[in-house]
Design a protein that fits this description.
Distance between the termini: 173 Å
Oligomer: single chain
Number of helices: 15
Shape: elongated
Largest sheet: 29 strands, mixed
Helix content: 10-25%
Number of strands: 38
Structural class: alpha+beta
């Protein structure tokens, strides 16, 4: 197709519209930044304006607002009677109020929790934003604080719901303080504590305190015991200029004295403190009575330690001192987990006097020190008693828990050598455990025990479990001189009993269980064994031959008792030697501490002159008696006299002849600690000479007849 030429009068297409050109150099990102800066500048300007208004006016116009907001937040009546200031002193908050009062909850006996003539402080702003209360300084004049708990564990310083459980008091950290004419009252019915503290007037000029000491004093009662206290800050100028605070304090309750000195990080901050504590007095129990903690009586004591507070714990470290004639060192922590007092300690002693151990089982230490062992004997009617009857302080142990590790290197005493005591004591809601309690005996044996005292039940239940490993007798009794190196015999023992009662005496007097002392094979001095057997013929023979120190052989031995309701019956007493079989019947009673035992020895070989009568042990634990001339021996002596008259002197001797028909004991049941019914002769026959273990009466065995005559 041929091109159609444009007509000269045909209109041209309209031109496209042009976009307006952007201003040269404008960037959208820069615009956003500029906008942000402008807004920030406005905010800063507004804040500066607020700061300027508050700084110029000192925020006095905020007084009604402060009273309204503070009253609403605390649910208390908050009022300022005089001048009020609230503003930013540079960046920190400055607060001043004259005649400030904060009311108490309705249940409190006093109208106001806090009141003052003048209070002024500056609080660090940034720590406050993060929940930390820290003031650069505090000026308080004419202040009164009523800090009080009630029996429902509400307190006056927990704001909000007046019936809510109170929170522990936490001091705000104050770097420096000037407090004049101020008193504080603290009441805690749970601790039975009430105290009033007064801070003496201090004159100040700028940052310099013209007096060299800020004094405080106070008094009060704790668990019914009055105490006084006084002290001071010894470096007030250093304190005012943000230095560490040197503190000294003295407290006294009767004969109990306490001294405290050291450094606090800040005027009101105990956390992280470095303090030195010294306590002394005539009886450590009086000191712990302030805490309501039951400890035994002691003789005079003195202890030093470092003291600090970390979290909720009061830590006593590098503790050292003495009680009575015993030393003590270690560390201790006192805390209140779940609002319940707990004591944790690791203690050790190089040397402990036996007198100072007495109170731990119920004996009075000063009496023991003055009178010796006789002080442990109490006269009850006509019978002396030695088992302690000091009652367990049940009400005191209900209010605290404890975990104590205690080690003793050596015990000073004139009896059995004891060393390396290790004790773990636990108290958990009135359940006490001494487990384990171990010690070395005579440098060769080892005693281990587990004792629990359950005071959770109405009738306190005590469980005794005591084990003695094989111990050489010559070492065990080396201080008594009973045995010498010629004795190679050993002894081991086991005690298992349970009883009820809140004293050692009551628990033993109601106990049930078993006591077993085992003598494995060994040698002993002839002198003491033959005297116990009262074999006069053999004794005289050995004496004439100068062989009293020649050892005799013990094949095996068992001294055992079954305890029923506090009464122990021999079950059995059986000692087999190379020449005799010794047995005993009878027993003893924990109820009145009486004893009634009859020992006798039957010879395995012919003896020309033998008493052949029981040796009696009677009396009481504190005053035992021995009966060598028994009715059986007197009867035999009468028969001998009759024979001597009727027949001849030879007939008199025949009354004391022992034919030597005693049966060897099977040592298996003896060494296993079996009861009387399980004992056998070496031929396997049941033994009839060891009793039944069912009664305490010591009925001596009938005398043996010789030739069917006697």
């Amino acid at each position: 197709m041929a091109d159609i030429p444009l007509s000269a009068d045909r209109p041209a297409p309209p031109p496209e519209p042009r976009r307006p050109a952007s201003p040269a150099g404008r960037d959208p990102a820069r615009t956003a930044v500029a906008t942000g800066v402008s807004i920030l500048a406005v905010l800063i300007g507004l804040l500066f304006l607020v700061w300027l208004v508050l700084f110029i006016t000192k925020g006095r116009f905020l007084k009604p607002t402060f009273e309204r907001i503070a009253s609403s937040a605390t649910e208390r009546r908050v009022r300022v009677a005089g001048d009020f200031q609230f503003y930013f002193d540079f960046i920190d908050i400055k607060f001043l109020a004259d005649g400030l009062t904060v009311s108490n909850p309705a249940w409190a006996p006093r109208p106001n929790f806090f009141e003052s003539r003048h209070i002024e402080t500056r609080v660090k702003t940034f720590p406050l934003i993060f929940g930390k209360r820290r003031a650069e300084f505090l000026v308080l004049d004419g202040g009164n604080v009523d800090a009080e708990w009630d029996k429902q564990r509400r307190n006056t310083w927990t704001f909000g719901d007046p019936n809510a459980k109170g929170a522990p008091f936490q001091w705000p950290v104050i770097d420096r303080a000037i407090v004049t004419g101020t008193t504080a009252r603290y009441v805690d019915p749970a601790l039975l504590l009430e105290t009033d503290i007064k801070v003496d007037t201090v004159r100040a000029s700028g940052t310099t305190i013209t007096d060299n000491r800020i004094n405080f004093s106070g008094d009060g009662t704790l668990r019914g015991k009055r105490f006084t206290m006084n002290g001071g800050i010894l470096s007030p100028n250093s304190t005012v200029t943000f230095g560490r605070t040197k503190l000294v304090m003295h407290a006294q309750s009767g004969p109990t004295l306490l001294d405290l000195n050291g450094v606090l990080p800040a005027a009101t901050q105990i956390e992280g403190s470095d303090l030195n504590l010294t306590v002394r007095g005539p009886n450590l129990r009086l000191l712990f009575d302030f805490l309501g903690v039951a400890v035994p009586d002691t003789r005079r004591y003195r202890f030093n330690s470092k003291l600090t507070k970390v979290g909720g714990e009061w830590r006593f470290t590098r503790l050292n001192g003495f009680f009575g004639a015993s030393d003590l060192a270690g560390d201790m922590t006192i805390s209140l987990p779940n609002d319940r007092l707990k004591i944790a300690a690791n203690l050790n002693s190089r040397s402990v006097d036996i007198v100072d151990i007495g109170p731990f089982i119920g004996y009075e230490p000063n009496a023991l020190a003055a009178k010796g062992a006789t002080a442990a004997v109490a006269q009850t009617g006509a019978a002396p008693r030695i088992i302690p009857d000091a009652p367990l302080r049940i009400e005191q142990i209900k209010i605290f828990d404890a975990h104590v590790n205690y080690k003793v290197r050596d015990v000073k005493q004139p009896f059995v050598p004891v060393s390396n005591i290790a004790l773990t004591f636990d108290l958990d809601h009135s359940l006490m455990k001494l487990s384990p309690l171990t010690m070395d005996i005579a440098d060769a044996g080892h005693l281990a025990s587990d004792i629990s005292i359950n005071a959770r039940v109405p009738a306190v239940l005590t469980d005794y479990n005591i084990r003695l490993s094989p111990t050489p007798l010559n070492k065990l009794f080396r201080k008594s001189g009973v045995f010498n190196s010629g004795t190679s015999g050993t002894i081991k023992a086991r005690i298992q009993m349970k009883g009820t009662g809140d004293t050692v005496r009551e628990s033993l007097a109601s106990s049930n269980g078993r006591i077993a002392i085992i003598l494995p094979r060994g040698t002993f001095w002839t002198q003491y064994v033959q005297l116990a057997e009262f074999d006069i013929g053999l004794f005289l023979q050995k004496l004439l031959q100068d062989q009293l120190k020649k050892p005799i052989e013990v094949n095996c031995g068992l001294i055992a008792f079954t305890v029923r309701d506090g009464v122990a019956a021999a079950d059995p007493v059986l000692i087999d030697t190379d020449k005799n079989v010794m047995t005993a019947k009878g027993g003893f009673s924990f109820k009145d501490e009486s004893m009634n035992l009859a020992f006798r020895a039957d010879g395995k070989k012919f003896s020309l002159f033998s008493g052949q009568s029981p040796v009696g042990i009677n009396g009481h634990f504190a005053a035992p008696g021995y009966q060598l001339i028994t009715p059986q021996l007197l009867a035999r002596g009468g028969a001998a006299l009759a024979l001597g008259v009727v027949a001849s002197p030879i007939g008199a001797v025949l009354a004391f002849v022992d034919p030597g028909d005693a049966k060897d004991a099977a040592c298996g049941p003896v060494l296993s600690g079996a009861r009387a019914g399980a004992q056998r002769t070496t031929e396997g026959e049941p033994r009839k000479d060891v009793g039944t273990g069912k009664g305490p009466d010591a009925q001596p065995a009938k005398k043996k007849k010789f030739l069917g005559i006697f």
